[in-house]
């Protein structure tokens, strides 16, 4: 019917499914609408038509339910349900309850409808979608997968049987795709997520569905933020807002604005972020979305921390947790951040309550949350001066964080490990603690340098220069102080007031005097690290609200190299044979040859080397224990990538490698290496299953 073409495309597909009477009545409004009409305007038209219908059809009410759901008119949806007692409305009411995290109610509604009307195909598919979504929210993986499989399986069958209703099936599949992509947004490789989104984008474009396009742009933007592509993230989320505004999707606008606020916080545009969050919160309050109300309070708390207002941050975090507990939702990152804030504000008893909650919730004792539990355990041990036990907990947390590619968390742990060893040195004056502190700070330095965090970088350079002076390496100490001075980059006027500049100048002068008079020690050799420890602890507090920025990168190739110089195993990420041949037989091997020789020239020394190779970087780390090297070709260097290389090197040291190697590796050893590579690089960086083994 021609009338359909004057209506928005996400709605016009329904009109041929209406009764003749409904189509004739809708036709009277065709001059008042076009393809750009919002759902709110369409809602008013449909309600007028509804008032004149004696017995609205299943699909008329179903289409009205979708319009009310998209425009976040949940109260009106509930009123119509009470009036008509229609399964068509009840299905969309179930979607509204999902938004309010009332998952048990949703499950009861869907199962009741399935049992009552099992033959209506579209109704069945919608019930499967509701059940999958509810179980996803409840983190019930088996039930979630069961109903998703039912949805996909029966959709394929119904596509063959149904013609006019195909778009309804595709609409439900888009809801399912969005759930699935969102659920995997952190754990799945980026390429897999992008492929899923591309498929969903194609379906949404064919349907002309602005709401689904907005959702997919928003999800893609969030995923790009997770992998550090901040500019791309901002672009996609901004595009999502345009689609949401066009269709009148209030809740979508709120969600996208909240995601934009996160990016503004990353860029340290705090006032702009705060404004966006408050706009989002007002919408979430209006539509009764409690879970997102909680997350907005949490985000506002992070901004308060960034501004140094810890009391306001505490109140906002506690409000966030209070809302989560009311709706029985688990957003464990909120609890982790609250526990950390309790610790730094001196309320260790409340932090212990959070720890018990995390332990009870995360019974498998794995993943990022277990990393936080180990960090909290370490902080308590540090307070009790049980530094050895604290170091054990911190190393466990660091292993988890490095494997997951969580840069800020790894940096946070490295900072604490540095502090633990500096405190032990102050207590026992033993060289081993100084050497460990140096290694941790050396590992940490690229983090602050990469993110251009001047004060933090200068503080750890000051610590590093002092360590070198205490070890009698005065030239190293002097060079690091000069680097710190250059890093400050102050004008003459600014230098007069800057405490770090004066401290650096005093230490440089002292070293220069030492060189001129051939002294063997400096006055700060006799000092403790109390000043430096205090400064580093201030960094730790400032990092409470930090976000991932441009830290992640994609690797192009990874090699595990035997002391003989022959690769034990090779992985290429670009899958073309041309790239593989260029890598293995072209300039790459020539480029790393000298580096390999230098790495193996001193088998007792572990070191990281980095050189440029065309537009890419070659990063290598050597294992002194097993005398092998991990070599990576990457599009760029990054702190996270260095941590992953280091973690892989550490993990492979437990594998007994052959002393003599002529190119054939024992399958059991190859399997162990493959497992470690997948464990370290399989989640967030792009070493995909199916990578070419050369």
Automatic annotation (TrEMBL):
Keyword check for Cell inner membrane: no
PANTHER family: RAPSYN-RELATED, TETRATRICOPEPTIDE REPEAT PROTEIN 28
Intervals holding TPR repeats: 294-327
InterPro entries from the UniProt entry: TPR-like_helical_dom_sf, TPR_rpt
Keyword Oxidoreductase listed: no
This protein's UniProt keywords: TPR repeat
Annotated protein name in UniProt: Tetratricopeptide repeat protein
Record organism: Candidatus Heimdallarchaeum endolithica
Domain of life the protein comes from: Archaea
């Amino acid at each position: 019917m021609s009338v359909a073409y004057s209506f928005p495309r996400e709605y016009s597909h329904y009109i041929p499914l209406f009764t003749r009477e409904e189509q004739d009545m809708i036709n009277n409004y065709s001059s008042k609408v076009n393809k750009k009409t919002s759902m709110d305007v369409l809602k008013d038209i449909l309600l007028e038509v509804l008032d004149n219908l004696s017995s609205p059809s299943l699909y008329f009410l179903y289409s009205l339910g979708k319009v009310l759901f998209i425009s976040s008119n949940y109260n009106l949806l509930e009123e119509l349900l009470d009036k008509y007692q229609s399964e068509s409305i009840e299905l969309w009411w179930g979607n509204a309850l999902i938004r309010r995290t009332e998952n048990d109610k949703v499950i009861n509604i869907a199962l009741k409808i399935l049992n009552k009307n099992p033959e209506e195909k579209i109704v069945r598919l919608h019930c499967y979608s509701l059940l999958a979504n509810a179980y996803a929210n409840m983190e019930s993986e088996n039930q979630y997968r069961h109903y998703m499989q039912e949805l996909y399986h029966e959709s394929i069958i119904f596509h063959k049987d149904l013609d006019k209703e195909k778009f309804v099936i595709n609409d439900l599949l888009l809801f399912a795709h969005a759930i699935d992509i969102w659920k995997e947004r952190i754990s799945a490789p980026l390429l897999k997520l992008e492929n899923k989104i591309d498929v969903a984008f194609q379906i949404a474009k064919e349907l002309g569905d602005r709401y689904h396009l907005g959702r997919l742009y928003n999800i893609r933007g969030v995923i790009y933020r997770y992998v550090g592509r901040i500019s791309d993230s901002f672009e996609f989320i901004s595009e999502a807002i345009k689609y949401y505004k066009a269709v009148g999707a209030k809740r979508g606008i709120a969600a996208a604005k909240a995601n934009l606020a996160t990016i503004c916080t990353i860029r340290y545009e705090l006032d702009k972020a705060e404004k966006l969050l408050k706009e989002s919160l007002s919408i979430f309050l209006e539509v009764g979305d409690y879970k997102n109300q909680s997350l907005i309070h949490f985000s506002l708390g992070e901004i308060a921390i960034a501004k140094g207002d810890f009391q306001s941050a505490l109140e906002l975090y506690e409000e966030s947790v209070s809302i989560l507990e009311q709706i029985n939702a688990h957003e464990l990152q909120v609890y982790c951040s609250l526990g950390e804030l309790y610790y730094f504000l001196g309320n260790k008893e409340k932090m212990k309550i959070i720890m018990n909650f995390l332990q009870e919730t995360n019974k498998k004792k794995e993943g990022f949350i277990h990393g936080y539990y180990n960090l909290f355990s370490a902080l308590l041990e540090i307070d009790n001066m049980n530094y050895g036990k604290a170091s054990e907990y911190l190393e466990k947390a660091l292993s988890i964080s490095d494997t997951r590619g969580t840069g800020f968390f790894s940096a946070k742990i490295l900072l604490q490990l540095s502090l633990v060893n500096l405190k032990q040195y102050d207590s026992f004056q033993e060289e081993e603690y100084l050497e460990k502190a140096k290694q941790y700070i050396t590992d940490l330095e690229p983090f602050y340098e990469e993110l251009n965090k001047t004060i933090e970088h200068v503080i750890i350079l000051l610590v590093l220069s002092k360590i070198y002076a205490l070890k009698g390496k005065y030239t190293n100490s002097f060079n690091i102080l000069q680097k710190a001075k250059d890093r400050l980059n102050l004008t003459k006027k600014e230098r007069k007031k800057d405490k770090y500049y004066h401290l650096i100048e005093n230490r440089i002068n002292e070293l220069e005097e030492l060189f001129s008079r051939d002294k063997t020690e400096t006055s700060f050799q006799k000092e403790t690290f109390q000043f430096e420890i205090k400064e580093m602890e201030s960094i730790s507090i400032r990092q409470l609200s930090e976000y991932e920025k441009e830290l992640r990168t994609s690797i192009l190739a990874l090699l595990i190299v035997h002391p003989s110089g022959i690769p034990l195993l090779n992985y290429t990420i670009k899958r073309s044979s041309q790239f593989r041949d260029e890598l293995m037989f072209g300039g790459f091997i020539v480029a790393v040859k000298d580096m390999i020789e230098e790495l193996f020239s001193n088998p007792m020394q572990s070191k990281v080397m980095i050189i440029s190779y065309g537009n890419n970087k070659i990063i290598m780390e050597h294992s002194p224990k097993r005398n092998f090297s991990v070599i990576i070709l990457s599009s760029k260097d990054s702190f996270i990538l260095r941590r992953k290389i280091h973690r892989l090197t550490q993990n492979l040291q437990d594998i007994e490698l052959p002393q003599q190697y002529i190119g054939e590796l024992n399958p059991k050893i190859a399997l162990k290496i493959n497992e470690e590579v997948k464990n370290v690089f399989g989640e967030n960086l792009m070493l995909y299953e199916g990578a070419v083994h050369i």
